[in-house]
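Hi R.,

Here's the chain you asked about this morning:
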Amino acid sequence: MRQTTTNGRGRYIFVQLPAGTYQVTAHKNGFQTVIRRGITLAVGQSATVNLRLGVGEASQQITVTENAPMAASAMDQSSGLVTGTSIRNLPLNGRSYDQLLTLNPEIANYTT
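And the predicted structure, written out as tokens:
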């Protein structure tokens, strides 16, 4: 579990998160607790998750359990995420795992 505090404008950041599925919980005294589940990150991906805390008692909590769309999502150019379409577009005759390396930018194949 990682924790951070927002700045004066309510912005927060988590750095160097490994690929996986995450949950973000925001809380402050005098406001409702908000939980956003189902935030999936791939290698090299960043996401912006905006949360709005409503005024309420400390015992109130709002939970979003469905995979709600994130406000913004971006992939680093060198993320290394290979899509199924990229793999299917490789020639069938003589297909080799070495060819997958060249699908990623900044990768040189020295195995040939």
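Strands lie at 20-26, 33-41, 45-48, 61-64, 72-75.

Let me know if you need anything else.
M.
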